[in-house]
Design brief:
heterodimer, A: mainly alpha, B: two-stranded antiparallel ribbon, 21% helix, 3% strand
Chain lengths: 195, 151
């Protein structure tokens, strides 16, 4: 029985649609996988310190701190604290990072002097974000719910107990734990020598 | 009369040429032990800071109180003083810490200041944290009568 023109056309249309879907499906996997791989690549310490502003300043300071070297051998690297884990927040942070690319091009902090001059402003940006997110990135590892105050040192036990009750967040007290602090006279005049 | 300095020089010269046996072979006991001068001294055993405790009593009236907790990672520099985030007059109540003595607000000319004096700013010049170690030399120091409660 000969096929009618109409039927043949429908069949061709169907197989074309199937082909497009198939190609689209695999192209999607490759594109999405590639996108995610590229994004994850920008989430590595090696990527962060490929820029000298990071390598010569904050990375060097961080090497003297407990998040770099400690008794249990667990290390938190740059993205553990500075990039959110959840996808939506992560992409939002990556988009905001374009501003950092702009300042890299402009050389805003490309000398130690320029970096120091901007340090308070940059630190305040991070503190503000952490306050707003209730120190979300800290809590990826340091979960209040699984923290046993009784096993802590006397001072930590008292402070953590009070902190939880008064609704404080990690960054309220734990500033400058992974990098040098800026000149803090503006932040707490009682804890620094005047200008 | 002139022979005396000459003899003295000769003795001095000879004594320098031949090193005293104690120095060459070790056996001279000093704070670094009795290791010969050419060898590296033994590394002391690792010790840890003492655990946090309540304030430690003074041994004499003028003693700067010692630090009853670890200060590992605490920065004190021109830009920032970690100690003062708890011990300053602005922060001590909230932190439940001892406040800095009033004597620390006077500069060397005797002028009273509104903030801590620069000469008193570097806490660890006088206040030190504690380690549980044996003293290097014997010490029989006793607290003054007023402080050890024996009257």
């Amino acid at each position: 029985m000969p096929e009618s023109g109409q039927e043949r056309k429908t069949k061709t249309g169907r197989s074309a649609l199937a082909a497009i879907l198939a190609v689209g499906f695999f192209a999607g996997i490759i594109f999405w996988g590639g996108f995610n791989t590229a994004m994850e690549l920008t989430n590595t310490e090696a990527f962060c310190i490929s820029c000298h502003e990071m390598r010569d300043n904050v990375y060097r300071e961080y090497q003297n701190t407990i998040h770099y070297s400690n008794r249990s051998g667990v290390r938190a690297t740059c993205p553990d604290c500075h990039v959110p884990r959840e996808w939506v927040h992560k992409v939002a942070r990556k988009i905001r990072a374009t501003n950092e690319l702009y300042h890299k091009l402009m050389g805003t902090i490309n000398t130690p002097g320029k970096f120091e001059a901007k340090r308070l402003q940059m630190a305040r940006n991070v503190w503000r974000t952490m306050k707003k997110t209730d120190s979300r990135e800290c809590r990826n590892c340091h979960d209040y719910a699984s923290m046993d105050y009784v096993k802590q040192e006397r001072r930590a036990m008292i402070q953590h107990d009070q902190g939880l009750e008064s609704g404080q967040t990690c960054i309220d007290c734990h500033k400058g734990i992974a990098h040098e602090l800026p000149a803090m006279y503006e932040v707490d005049p009682s804890a620094a020598i005047g200008p | 009369m002139k022979t005396i300095p000459a003899t003295a020089f000769a003795i001095l010269f000879l004594s320098l040429a031949v090193p005293p046996p104690a120095l060459a072979e070790g056996g001279l006991k000093s704070l670094r032990g009795d290791r010969p001068i050419g060898e590296e001294s033994l590394q002391p055993a690792f010790t840890k800071w003492q655990h946090d405790s309540k304030p430690i009593a003074r041994q004499f009236i003028q003693q700067p109180p010692v630090i009853p907790h670890s200060i590992e990672g605490y920065t004190i520099n021109k830009k920032f003083n970690k100690c003062l985030t708890c011990h300053s007059w602005a922060n001590y109540k909230k932190a439940g810490a001892t406040k800095v003595s009033l004597t620390h607000f006077t500069n060397r000319d005797g002028v009273e200041l509104a903030n801590i004096a620069a000469r008193r700013y570097f806490c660890t010049q006088c206040h030190v944290p504690q380690l549980d170690v044996d003293p290097l030399v014997p010490n029989a120091f006793q607290p003054v009568e007023l402080l050890n409660g024996q009257r």
